[in-house]
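Hi R.,

Here's the chain you asked about this morning:
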Amino acid sequence: MADEESLEELKIKIDSLSHPEVMALFSEKLGKIMEDPLLIGLPNEPTLDEMNSQIALEHGRAIVVNVRQQDEQGTLLPVVVIQNATVHDLKKAIQRHISLKLSREGGPNIVSW
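And here is the predicted structure, written out as tokens:
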């Protein structure tokens, strides 16, 4: 019963907060969650797909495929795919990885695949 009361109090508290206050509270809680050792490799603001991929890695349902990009630096892209992924699945995962990387870096959003 005490848990239900505290949950109701939390709902009331959140309902009385402004949008920026709720976003600040969310960011604070997300920061605490991201301190978990299982989530070390994720960026500061991970997507749901990145979180699910990391969980799948920890449970042994996915693998990391290191793809070397043919640029001047020979950039290594760690792409997460499920263990029984097809070449098509790998291609889609590489596209998601690069698109997300470009959007985080503020680069062009359109890539000719």
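One quick note: DSSP finds four helices and two strands in the chain.

Cheers,
M.
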